[in-house]
Amino acid sequence: MIVAGFGFRAAADVDSLHNALRRAVGDRRITSLATVGDKADTPVFRQFAKRLGLPVRRISHHHLPSAKTQSQGAMSQTMRQTGSVAEATALLAAGPGARLVQTRIISTDRMATCAIAEGDTD
């Protein structure tokens, strides 16, 4: 399983998410997307997932602090109690023993971040 985790601002659009994904994914084949539960239900993220035809794994904000992220963003720490929402959601969605294969990458418009994690479960 290869999961693309996302963090994004309220002003992000589908292009922001696509840009962050393109910059982070490399030649990997993503099997699912992940983000915080409240963000997963936003119209922009639902549209993004639908266009890609990928399932979305919703991660509870209560679980974010348990993920060991490599990046340490001040805003993520303040708002979500994690160093990186993208890294935390990717790791948590990929399951126990997951590992980051790409730390967070910021979209060129600075509205979205994407990180890639690999896990052994589906």
UniProtKB/TrEMBL annotation:
BP GO terms, sorted: cobalamin biosynthetic process
Transmembrane segments: none
SUPFAM superfamilies: CobE/GbiG C-terminal domain-like
Domain of life: Bacteria
Pfam families found in the cross-reference section: CbiG_C
Domain CobE/GbiG C-terminal: 2-117
Protein's recorded name: Cobalamin biosynthesis protein
Organism: Pontibaca salina
